[in-house]
Predict the 3D structure of the following.
Amino acid sequence: MGRCCRNFNPKPKEIYFYLPKTTNNALKSLIKRYGCFDRREREKESCIEITQVFNPALLFYKFIPSDKKEGFNTKIAGEFFEAFANLWKRKDILKTNVEKLKNLHKWIIMSLLKDDWYICSDIQKKLQWRMVVGLGTNHPYEVSMKLHHIYGVPIIPGSALKGIARDMALLKIGDNLKQIEENIQGWFKDNDKKKKFFAKIKGEEFSNLTDEEKLLLAFGNQQFSGIVVFLDAIPDSAPKFKVDIMNPHYPEYYQGKNFPTDWQNPNPIKFLTVENTKFRFTVLVNKARLNRDDKDNYAR
């Protein structure tokens, strides 16, 4: 276990980082050279004073302090999230990383357009308040957030957006969602349905597709890959991190120790969110697949 100075209280207190030995050795060298992990009052805000952190994701997922005696607990988690949010207010690295991610995003789109894809939708929307994606992702503090692994920027995964769009499409075309889902998943078991489906696509008879066929064409099933792709939604500018709170009123009940009684003390849990940030949403369609003669290629 690695350790460094922690000044959360008047008396110095050790914290530990559960990392591989080689990583700890490198970490201790950085701490010795650039400063310790500490909390101090600066403009009435607590902060992490690490001058050479270039990747928020690396800090958030790997550089995680644990109390020597109590381990990973809600108190130290709250302090860490507050310090994390305050740290990036004073750094330009997020702005730089967002620009790099936007350039990568642009390159992906241009590459797809060259391969006969076309943009179905490309819009920017600002969060109405706060948002967290990936709250339940594995994390020592049991509350997390989805950050881009290379640039450390908050993103909304394309898989999540596709799932939301698919669920909304299911709700729109009928009330019997379970039956519709079964029909779509078993579509290619019926050879007659399969032939008619591909004949309509080849003849560009999209107006003649049934609602279930449209859903299948866009989102696919286990045997057929849909032609619509949702790119990860990315921030248009440096995101604003903000700590929010959930307040379970029956902690003993959730721990399986007691009934949900009124005399239990609430147990506030802090977690990280993004607020007042504009995201770009891009959806593309694989036009080339609609023109292929080889129907086996549709399974790609």
